[in-house]
């Protein structure tokens, strides 16, 4: 495997080793938090008081990790294309590369800033929270719309890309509205509904991500693999079935 191939593995490796274990922790703590809230007021719950705060903190890390791993997955096809093709073979050349690189770095800075905000009440830091959430979401979507990023538009309902974009936006929204979720019951109900959808998307990401790994050739295999006819499922020199 070449360096480009190891680079390509960063996105799925971090998702498997870091993101999904944190997801398990977040889901477990979410269930315990809900059970504690529903327990009778006159009975002492065995669930510790700190479980809600632990759930919020783990959720902050999960959201930040999801955005970072998404930016790695989106950035790889863009920047590796420049490495392979050079400035002359890359659409837009070096100026476009610099623009995309700045957008990529800016998106990382925006999610880091959103993560670091610690408002104590729903009224605190509303504008910065909204600003950093919008900048992060816009950056991820704009980078994902680049032509180098494979989207599987012909099978959009089972697209790893579209599932990922929807998941990122849901997670950013949850992080940006964390003070409201902690304080207001209606926001809490909305949070539960949206994050049930996010859990389903996580499941879809696991399946579609594994499928896509089977379809991505190593860098030295690409010249041969991309000569194949993917509609008729044949390759040059392949004997008739």
UniProtKB/TrEMBL annotation:
The keyword Membrane is annotated on this UniProt entry: yes
Q: Which domain of life is it from?
A: Bacteria
Transmembrane regions: 6-27, 61-79, 99-117, 129-147, 159-178, 190-210
Q: What is the protein name for this chain? A: DUF4079 domain-containing protein
- Per UniProt, what is one Pfam family of this protein? DUF4079
What keywords are assigned to this protein? Membrane, Transmembrane, Transmembrane helix
